[in-house]
TrEMBL record:
Residues 19-60 form the FecR N-terminal domain. It comes from the Bacteria. It comes from Vreelandella arcis. One of its GO terms (molecular function) is sigma factor antagonist activity. This is FecR family protein. Residues 117-209 form the FecR protein domain.
Amino acid sequence: MSRTSADASQKTIDPAVLEQASLWMARLWSDDISEAQRDACLAWRQASPEHERAWQQLQAIDGRLAALPRHAARSELFSSSQVSRRGLLQWGGLAVLLGGLGFGLPRTPQWQRQFADYATGIGESRELTLSDGTHLVLDTDTAIDVRFDAHQRRLHLLRGGVLITTAKTPDARAFSVMTQEGLSYPLGTRFSVQQHSDSTQVAVYEGRVALERRGSDERATLDAGQQAAMSADGVSPPAPLEPAGLARFQGRLVAEGMRVSDVVEILARYRHGVVRCAPEVADRRVSGVFSLQDTDRALASLADALSLKVVYRTPLWVTVASRNTHEN
């Protein structure tokens, strides 16, 4: 292997891309795969160099399994009645293999969802009440750890988003939410925290929340009706709440003059596979309420509102395009 090829193989791959690759590979391993789905998988691989790198790394793992000694052979592992080869990818076994090969195991979505205290899969939501009476609503693709002890009550948001209504009962232990960018301290409140790839978004619906950026003495306070973001560059100035923020935790996307590409991007978080928007319709604007619990219905509503079309190459490969555009 050339030095250039070796360097390329060591580049960090977005965990979301690895997850998409694992879904495609799991689909190809199934017994009912169709030629159209094979073509859609190939199209996904060809859509981006990173997609192809992720695919090749998974193929390399498959090859390493094939080379295992007989007592640990791939055929024995996947012939188990409890673990299928396809299931290994889907429930997170692939994350174990990726971690063993240096792909950042704790950062993979599969690992975080599998081993967090509480988690939701793609398209799922969950409500729960903690031991102190705090109520949580977990958004799609969310993982959270809970650390309560004699001195503090801390939630660690590993990925995704959570709506928090703090307990009404007085508790001397400080309550906080930790993300990659820092800590959020609620002061008797209802608020949401979203972990993005490079920032934390906090929105306050009742009460107040203090933000403390990691590695800094910088601190800001948000009042009800305000939101702000924490990142490596600092805490953004408080801004008015977006009307769509709270609705997402209720299973709805409220769009007010929203770009089609932004609507599609949000809907994509709530379903498996790839949902893309054709460039010619990306900047068109739409207003309406769309279901996050039934994304097929939401896509159909979006298409009806703007006279677009939704093209399903497979259930895992969907494109929103102009009705005048020819799709192969």
